[in-house]
Amino acid sequence: MELSERKKSILKAVVELYVALAEPVGSKAIAAALPQSVSSATIRNEMAELEEMGYLEKPHTSAGRIPSPKCYRIYVNELMEQHRLSQQETERMNRALQIRLQELDRMLTQAGQMVSRFMNYPVYALAAGKKEITVVRFDLLSVNETDFIAVVMTSDHRVKSQLLHGECPVDAAQLPVLAALLNKDFTGKTQEELSQQLMGMAAQLPGLLFMTVSQAVDYACGVLEDACRRMVYTTGANRILDLPEYQDVGKANQLLRFLSEESTALPAPEDNDPVQILIGPENVEQALQDSSVVVASYDIGGDMRGLIGVVGPTRMDYAAVEARLSYFAAGLSRMFDQGKLPKHEEDVKE
Amino acid sequence: MELSERKKSILKAVVELYVALAEPVGSKAIAAALPQSVSSATIRNEMAELEEMGYLEKPHTSAGRIPSPKCYRIYVNELMEQHRLSQQETERMNRALQIRLQELDRMLTQAGQMVSRFMNYPVYALAAGKKEITVVRFDLLSVNETDFIAVVMTSDHRVKSQLLHGECPVDAAQLPVLAALLNKDFTGKTQEELSQQLMGMAAQLPGLLFMTVSQAVDYACGVLEDACRRMVYTTGANRILDLPEYQDVGKANQLLRFLSEESTALPAPEDNDPVQILIGPENVEQALQDSSVVVASYDIGGDMRGLIGVVGPTRMDYAAVEARLSYFAAGLSRMFDQGKLPKHEEDVKE
DNA sequence: ATTTAGCACTCAGAAAGCAGGAGTGCTAAA
DNA sequence: TTTAGCACTCCTGCTTTCTGAGTGCTAAAT
C-alpha cells in the first residue's frame, strides 16, 4: 500500500528532527516543522497509523515517536533530499585530498583518517581485489657478507622489503642468480603454492643456496599472509563515545570491540553501487544491529577497488554522510587515476 | 619521618585490598587481612594518622580509605613483594614469544598486541634511537619504461620500498647510475638535509634524470617523516572500558582520545631502569593524571631500544604488571639478540 | 469524511523522604 | 598502648510523590 504524501512528509520530519535532536519527536514538533499547517491532533492520528504500519516506534507510552529501521530505509530511498555540500566543506575536502600518493597501505589509513575527521564517525578503509594476491617479482640486494635485502612486489602493486640476516654467508655474486630463480619459479603463486614449491626445491639446490632462497620465500609468504589478513584499517572508533546512543559503556564497548577485533567482517557492497547504505538490522553482523553503515567504493587502478565505510548510529544524517562520502570517493578515484598505479604486464595480458 | 612497621603493613594491606576489590577498604577488612591480630579500632587510629600524613584518602566521611598516589609510590618502592609468575603464565608468554622476527614496525605492533592480551590494559610500543634517523642506502629497480621501484634503507635497519610511476620515461640502464649518485650524495642525511641537497642538485643534472632522482628523494623524505611521526603503536585501548574507574564515559573518552591522538606524548623512561613505574600525578601529561604507566625497555640491537608500556588506572596490580612486563621485555631482548639485526657499517665505526 | 479542540490518562525522570548499614571518631576502660 | 563501646555521618538503595510532555479518544466543527 502506498503512503499518502502527508504521511511521507511526516516520516521525513520525524527522521530529520530525530537525527538533529536525538530525542523522540512529538506531534507538536512535527506540526511546527511541516510546510502545510495542520494541527497536532491530525499528526497524532497519522502517527498512530504509521506506527501500526511499522514505520514509527515509541520508546514508551507517553513519549514521542522515533523512526524504525524501515522508516530510515524509506527515507534514504525516497524521501531524503540531495545534501548540498557547502563551499567550506568542499574546500576543506579538496585540501585534504591534496596528499601525496604513497604506498597503498598508508594511502588507505590516510584516507580513513581524513574521512573520519570530516564525519565524526568511525571509518574503515580497505582495498579489495578480484583475484588472489601473488608475488610478481623478487629482488635480492646484497648488504654485506651475511645480510641481504629481500624486495617483493605483489600483484596488487605493493612493494615490501626487509633486511634479512642470512643464516649462512651469502655471496653477493650469487644473489642475482638466486633472484632469477625466484622470479622464474616462485612468481604468480599463492601463499600455499609458494610453500609447496619451496618443499619441492629442497632437494635440487645446494644447501647453502637453499637456505637463502628459503628465507626469501618465507618472507614473501609473510607478506602475502598479511596482505590478506590486515587489509582493513579503522580510524576514529572512539568518536562514538561522543554520541548519546553510546553513552552506555556496555554498548560502546561492544561496538568498539567489534571494530577493533573483527573489522574484517565489516560490510563491503555487493553490487557496484557507488554508495551503499545499510541500516540497523540490515547488517548481518550482530554487533552492527543497532548501527548503520554507509560505504562507498572508488577506483584504485589495477584490478583493485578501494572501499571506505562510515559506521554510526541508525540515527545518522544519511543525506550528509552520503554526500560527503561520495565526494570523497570521487576525489580518491581521481587521485588514483592521475598518479595511476602502473599496470603490471600480467594485468595487461587479459 | 619513618613509618612504623605496622603502618607499613597497613598501607600494604590497603593497597592490595583496594587493587583487588576496587572499593574503599575499611578498618575491619584490614584487621582481618593483617598477619598480626589487632583490633579494628587500632587500625582506625593508625589510619587516621596515615591520612594525616597523606598516604590515605577518604572518598567521604563514612567510607573506607583508598590509597593516595603517595601510598602507591611507597608501595612499589618498598612494600610490594616480587610477584611470582605462575608456570602457566610463563608458558603462555613463552609460546607468544615464538614469533618470527619480522620488519621492525610489525614487530612492535605484535609485541604490543601480545602484551596487551596478557595484561588486560592498553599497551603502547615504540622504538627509540639515540640518533636521528637517516637513509643509509638507496636502490632503484627498473620495472618497465615508465615505472621503477625505489628501495630505501634507513639507519634503524628498516627497509622500505615503493613502486613509483615515473613522470618521464626512465631508462633501465640509467638507474644504477642514479642509485650510485643517490648513495653518494643523499645518504646519512636527515629529512631537511635531504630536501636541501635536492635543491642544490637541481641545476647540475639534466632535467629528465633530475625528475627521477627527485621522486626517489621525495619518497625517502616521506619514509623518514613517518619514521619519526608514526613511531608509537597502541593496542587494546578499549580494554579500559571493562574497568570500574572508566565506567564514566567522559573519563574513558578522555583517556582513549589521548591514547589514540597524542600517543607520542606517552612517557619513555629517562634513566636506564629496566622498568619504570609512573603513578597518577607523577605523569606530566594532563590526561594521565588519574592513570598509571608501567614501562619497560629492551634491547633491539643497533643503537636502538624498544619501549613497551602498560597504561592502567592508579589502582593497578603493580607487582603483577611489573613482573610480566619485565619477563616480556627480557624475552624480546633475547629474541632480538638471536635474530640479531645486523650492524650497519656506520654503526660499527664508532 | 476530515480535521480540530479538549480532556483524561500514562509514564519516565526528577526530587524528596526514609531505612539500613558500613565505617568512622571519640571516650573510657583494660 | 590497645581495645570495646557507642554515637554520628553519610552513602546506597528504596519507595513515594510530583511534574510535564505526549498520547488516545471523544465530540464538535468544517
Write a concise keyword list for the protein shown above.
homodimer, 350 residues, alpha+beta, Arc Repressor Mutant, subunit A, Beta-Lactamase, Enolase-like, domain 1, 3 domains, 5-stranded antiparallel β-sheet, 3-stranded antiparallel β-sheet, disordered C terminus, DNA-binding
Report on this model:
- Chain A is an alpha+beta fold and 350 residues long.
- Chain A folds into three domains: 5-79, Orthogonal Bundle (Arc Repressor Mutant, subunit A); 87-122 and 236-349, GAF domain (Beta-Lactamase, 2-Layer Sandwich); 135-229, 2-Layer Sandwich (Enolase-like, domain 1).
- The first copy, chain A, is 45% helix and 18% strand.
- Chain A has twelve helices and ten strands.
- Chain A has helices at 5-21, 27-33, 40-52, 69-79, 87-96, 104-119, 174-185, 191-201, 207-229, 249-261, 318-338, 345-349, and strands at residues 56-57, 66-67, 123-129, 135-142, 147-154, 159-165, 233-235, 275-278, 291-301, 304-313.
- In chain A, the strands form three sheets. In chain A, strands 7-3-10-9-8 form a five-stranded antiparallel β-sheet, covered by helices on one side.
- In chain A, a hairpin with an 8-residue loop joins strand 1 and strand 2.
- In chain A, helix 6 (104-119) packs antiparallel against helix 11 (318-338) and helix 7 packs across helix 9 (207-229).
Task: Give a topology summary.
The structure is a homodimer of 350-residue chains.
Chain A: H1 5-21, H2 27-33, H3 40-52, E1 56-57, E2 66-67, H4 69-79, H5 87-96, H6 104-119, E3 123-129, E4 135-142, E5 147-154, E6 159-165, H7 174-185, H8 191-201, H9 207-229, E7 233-235, H10 249-261, E8 275-278, E9 291-301, E10 304-313, H11 318-338, H12 345-349
Antiparallel strand pairs in A: 1-2, 3-7, 3-10, 4-5, 5-6, 8-9, 9-10
Helix pairs in contact in A: 1-4, 2-3, 6-11, 7-9, 8-9
The first copy, chain A, binds a DNA duplex (30 and 30 nucleotides) through helix 3.
